[in-house]
Amino acid sequence: MSPVFDNLDLFVEGFLTSLGICLVAMVGSLVLGVAIAACRVSPVPPLRALGAFWVTTFRNTPLSLILFFCAFGLPELGVNRSFWFFGVLGLILYTSAFVAEAVRAGINSVPAGQAEASRSLGLTFGQGLRTVVLPQALRTVVPPLGNVIIAMFKNSAVVGAFGVGGDLWSTGQTLTSARGLETLPIFTGVAIGYLLITLPAGALLQVLERRVAIVR
Amino acid sequence: MRFRRTTTAVTVAIAALALAACGDDGDDGGSSGSSAEPSVAETPDFEAGTTMARLADQGTIRVGTKFDQPGFGLENLDGDVEGFDVEVAKIIAGALGIEEGDIEFVQTPSAVREEVLEGGEVDMVVATYTINDARRERISFAGPYYEAGQQIMVASDNDDITGPDSLADNPDAKVCSVTGSTPSENIREYLASDDQLVLFDEYSQCADALGNGQVDAVTTDNVILLGFVSESDGEFKLVGEQFTEEPYGIGIPKGDVAFCEFINQTLADNEDAYVAAWESTAGQVEGTETPSLPEPQPCS
Q1: Which of A80, A161, A174 comes nearest B213 by C-beta?
Q2: Using an 8 Å Cβ cutoff, are A22 and A153 in contact?
Q3: Which fold is adopted by the domain B4-147+247-284?
Q4: CA B254, chain centre distance (Å)
Q5: CATH value at residue A93
Q6: Using alpha carbons only, what angle is made at residue A40 by residues A35 and A41, rounded to the nearest 5 degrees?
Q7: What 3 state SS string does B126-182 have?
């Protein structure tokens, strides 16, 4: 493992870059995914259509293609931002579709009577969703959402191939190809880096799940 | 609808690029077949126990090369690899009495070049392999057979970047290269910060990013850049002098001095085939000069 310890500073830098990408993409995809789920169950047909279109498009397109269209398609349309921005954007678009479906499953699990009761109390659709339905729905979706988010953390390795320099995966590539270090220990180090992100995330999820669980 | 239309436009653009690339490969393939074939030795005689004797006996050789490097090693639609590296490998195989058809080309991306030699999966690696001391600790090099040099390519209307030294003066300028390549490492010392460096898997992606203004410069070995310049219809240009020396060597298992000396001798004996190999492959790109065989480095 000495090739890893000799380049520990690069690994730490790569780890922090990857962690940053993961956190920003996590927040972005959760917010966007909940919004899309809200669209999918809304009483307004155009919003429902938008939600369905969104999920169909981004759930059924390979991540690498979404990233490609972000990194090479958007600049053709005159959108010139950093590749970091495009990479995180692609990750958020892709993951938001899965988040939306997980959240929608949760919403459907809340008995219809709850929504009806909130309507009869005079709450609007949005208020009812925000204060009555979603709080109950989100508790049930912690495990599937955790799945989606952990998968997204691992997917973040793909953005390294689209110009986002300095993440864990690219660091491993640089060390093995350009500097000729041994592949096995370097990529073991890269794997440990990703485990350092995903394992604590899994543990956090378990704590969260216990905290919000409804005693039935 | 707007989204659909733009998607189609991008898809068409990709398809056009792919077709353009295919067209060029076809041309290269046609000419490399017709020009001077490397000669195959009739009954070569080697000292028993050497690598040469073993390879000549078995009548086959496994060569690691790149499958995605235009001009040096590029797989065509028929599944054959073409390029200067491939032709050099054929010259060496010929001297061992091995026919072209008995050479097995193994795809060897940069990251695994040492591994495949150490693991004995190939007999030699000819894959735009820059000789350096870090690599010498794990394998040995014959050659060099070519001296490349790194240069910088920018858009034709860019007058701010005039060479590597002007990159630090333009700290917002982005430079593109390939992940894990020697040029991507060499350029770092010229940059104001690592944020200026953008890395992709292939140089063609760098060229696309330069075309749509996402990056301001592309850097790698000049012979690769010349290929993009000649295909760009005047959109790209090279600036500044070449600022590194990249001697391409032939990777062989560590310590096989006899094999190394044999390869160097073979190249020296076949200079006509060497020139023909260049002219039918990388030399087809406008603006390249036919190299002469560099002085071999001592075998170790």
Answers
A1: A80
A2: yes
A3: D-Maltodextrin-Binding Protein; domain 2 (3.40.190)
A4: 22
A5: 1.10.3720.10
A6: 100
A7: EEEEECCHHHHCCEEEEEEEEEECEEEEEECCCCCCCCHHHCCCCCCCCEEEECCCH
What is the H or E stretch that residue A187 is in?
helix A183-212
Cβ distance of B194 and A165 shorter than 8 Å: yes
- Encode A90-105 in three state secondary structure: HHHHHHHHHHHHHHHH
Tokens of A164: 């986002």
Strands B175-178 and B197-200: parallel
C-alpha B185/C-alpha B188 separation (Å) is 6
Q: How far apart are CA A55 and CA A197, in angstroms?
A: 27
Mutation choice for A interface testing from B69, B128, B179, B219 by most A CBs within 10 A: B179
Q: How many Cβ pairs closer than 8 A exist between chain A and B?
A: 83
pLDDT value of position B36: 52
CB B218 within 8 A of CB B228: yes
ipTM score above 0.90: no
Other beta carbons less than 10 A from residue B184's beta carbon:
25
pLDDT tens figures, A9-60: 888 989 999 999 999 999 999 999 999 999 999 889 999 999 999 999 999 9
The list of chain B residues with pLDDT below 70 reads 1-38
pLDDT for B227 equals 80
Give the mean pLDDT of chain B. Answer: 83
Q: Which residues of B touch A64 (CB under 8 A)?
A: none
Q: What is the pLDDT of residues B35-64, one digit of tens each?
A: 456 677 777 778 888 999 999 999 999 999
Single-letter residue type at B19: L
Listed by start position, the domains of chain B span: 4-147+247-284, 150-239
- C-alpha A41/C-alpha A45 separation (Å) is 9
Give me the number of domains chain A comprises.
1
Q: How far is CA B166 from CA B172, B182, B196, B242, B278, in A?
A: 12, 20, 13, 14, 33
Please give the residue range of the domain that contains residue A164: 2-215
Distances (CA, A) of B1 to A17, B4, B5: 36, 5, 6
Cβ atoms of B168 and B191 closer than 8 Å: yes
Domain B150-239, CATH homologous superfamily name and number: Periplasmic binding protein-like II (3.40.190.10)
Task: Tell me the two tokens of residue B185.
Answer: 């490492």
pLDDT 10s digits, B189-228: 899 888 898 988 888 889 999 998 899 999 998 888 888 8
Residue in A173, A175, A183, A184 to test binding to B, most B beta-carbons within 10 Å? A173
Cβ-contact A167, A159 below 8 angstroms = yes
